[in-house]
Specification:
Helix content is 27%, strand content 26%. The strands form four sheets. It has a seven-stranded mixed β-sheet. The protein has 387 residues and is an alpha+beta fold. The protein has two domains: 2-13 and 273-384, Peptidoglycan synthesis regulatory factor (PBP3), Domain 2; 27-267, Beta-lactamase, CATH 3.40.710.10. The radius of gyration is 27 Å and the shape is elongated. The two termini are 22 Å apart. The protein has seven helices and 16 strands.
Length: 387
């Protein structure tokens, strides 16, 4: 039987209702990494043209190849005629030129080089073509849980069917940060001079990097179809936020909206510890045990993100399938603490047995049978009274 218990000890009195951020972006996603909390979701699962933000997937695949030893930062890759055929943001690479993997990666991150993406793609593609690499990107994205992403090329150049959702971009940004900490600092570089004859093309387009708000990545994007977008991240103290916006109408709007989102995420929410490791939250009934109940405790501190000016209370309840059959070992997962902060998604945390409970003897079986009989009588009475 699924049993639900109130967890009144975790209710937090607050004052004002939380207000969602009113973004001008056509689609947006804001995620707090520290507490795994989605702070904003506006059309976040809609597959949309990602423009150059999809270069993050090319970079992820490239970093994996480096980790496997398939590529080295010092390897020199040759520029094909196909790579040289792209316009838009480029490193102005020339057909037949050889460029190191490190230069290509920094050129993609800082300068958004379309040509650099193609050179990487052709080097890693199973069939040596950019199309083959795009299909590989799509399969890898699906494996990572990015179910609304399909790639037609390596750069985000406008193409039929080239789509990503804002949630997928947020997941990808999170994976880049967590999986490749040794490479992530490149995303905060504000300039990279690859070709002295093209010195004007050396600045990172990310408008947040020099604002002193903890921003350290990741990638801008713009096409006529997609509008102006940014997949970004910022860290203040122990908290890190990842955000994605798309569909803005200018570079100025992108800069203003991105800065506003970062400030909102850090100023309007705070991390709070609601329960500590080993603190009894509730008890569960035990079937045929030496003890009639077992304490339910968190296996680790429970910290959640809550609005600074939140409304009413944090709704908390404990759910478990019980009575729990003895014997029970301390630390065995038995229940879930379900929290519903106002204006934020439901959050669930595992609760474990506080102590060992041995299997009971004859008296325990008699007690259990009596408890079962009482439950049946109670259930029958409730049913009859409601008829």
């Amino acid at each position: 039987m699924i049993r639900t218990l109130a967890a009144t000890a975790l209710l937090i009195a607050t004052a004002l209702p939380v207000t969602a951020f009113e973004t001008r972006a056509t689609a947006a996603y804001v995620y707090d990494l520290s507490t795994s909390t989605v702070l904003l979701n506006k059309n976040a699962d809609a597959p949309l043209p990602p423009a150059s933000m999809s270069k993050l997937m090319t970079l992820y695949v490239a970093f994996e190849a480096i980790e496997r030893g398939q590529l080295r930062m010092t390897d020199e890759l040759v520029v094909s005629a196909h790579a040289n055929s792209f316009g838009g943001s480029t490193l102005f690479l020339k057909t037949g030129e050889r460029v190191t993997v490190e230069e290509l990666i920094r050129g993609i991150i800082v300068l958004s080089g379309n040509d650099a993406c193609v050179v990487i793609a052709e080097a890693l593609s199973p069939d040596g073509t950019e199309g083959g690499f795009a299909r590989m990107m799509t399969r890898r994205a699906q494996d990572m849980g990015m179910t609304n992403s399909t790639f037609a090329n390596s750069s985000g150049w406008p193409a039929a069917g080239h789509r990503m959702s804002m949630r997928d971009l947020g997941l990808l940004a999170t994976r880049l940060i967590e999986d490749f900490p040794e490479y992530y600092p490149m995303f905060s570089e504000t300039e990279f001079l690859f070709d002295a004859t093209e010195s004007a093309n050396r600045f990172n387009r990310n408008p947040l990097l020099k604002l002193g708000i903890g921003a350290d990545g990741l990638k801008t994007g713009h096409t006529q179809e997609a509008g102006y977008g940014l997949t970004g991240s910022a860290k203040q103290g122990d908290r890190r936020v990842v955000f994605v916006v798309s569909g803005l109408d200018s570079t100025a709007a992108r800069a203003q909206e991105s800065e506003a989102i970062v400030n909102w995420a850090f100023r309007q929410f705070a991390e709070r510890t609601l329960a500590t490791e080993g603190e009894r939250i509730a008890t569960a009934q035990v079937w045929e045990g030496a003890e009639p109940i077992v304490g339910l405790v968190p296996a680790a501190d429970i910290s959640v993100l809550l609005p600074v000016l939140a409304g009413n209370e944090v709704s908390a309840e404990v759910v478990y399938n019980g009575p729990v059959q003895a014997p029970i070992a301390a630390g065995t997962p038995l229940a879930e603490l379900v929290l519903q902060p106002e204006g934020l998604p439901e959050q669930r945390f595992a609760l474990v047995a506080e102590a060992d409970v041995a299997h009971g003897g004859f008296l325990a079986r008699i007690s259990t049978a009596a408890m079962s009989l009482i439950d049946r009588i109670s259930s029958r009475s409730t049913s009859e009274s409601g008829a």
